[in-house]
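Case study.
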Amino acid sequence: DQQVKQNSPSLSVQEGRISILNCDYTNSMFDYFLWYKKYPAEGPTFLISISSIKDKNEDGRFTVFLNKSAKHLSLHIVPSQPGDSAVYFCAASVAGGTSYGKLTFGQGTILTVHP
Amino acid sequence: KAGVTQTPRYLIKTRGQQVTLSCSPISGHRSVSWYQQTPGQGLQFLFEYFSETQRNKGNFPGRFSGRQFSNSRSEMNVSTLELGDSALYLCASSGQANTGELFFGEGSRLTVL
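After joint prediction, the assembly is written out as follows.
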């Protein structure tokens, strides 16, 4: 049972344009959402997060949007740069209780930004 | 500040053997989590330790086990290895409560022949 889904295995974008990565979830208990980026031969690195009490969080070129009613979130990268080429993972957690390190990840989307 | 360190980085085992992977978290981090990454499956949560106690466990068979030491270093063990256990095993540490921001190591790539 895939509680977090990234339905697009890959995305190709031209440098300077917007990259939009999508993620859907099914578990209503999730109340904290994160995006991680992973380069080959490296561990994932935290990119940006959003709490369920917000619908938007922005950090430089990266913005995450959350639509709770649709159980959908998206990551926007503007403008996209070749160095953004990586695998992007969406993740969710139940922030309360004792789940510090337990995240539920999507399958990942390979982003390729062409010069 | 040193990052999360995992050893060994690569290893090859045969079916039926057992393997132990090690993880040293970022200094001061008390929570250590383990994840398995396989192609097409994303990252699957294995278990989490906090102050030497297993706090959460994922949906993996009992062949997968772990422990945490008093210095927060952690080990995971897989016994009676199967071909399907071939994967990248990632360790992550966390110092903040309830934010989900994890700091990952580079992983241990296990190949089972």
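Observations recorded in class. The longest strand of chain A covers residues 86-93. Chain A has a mean pLDDT of 93. We will return to this complex in the next lecture.
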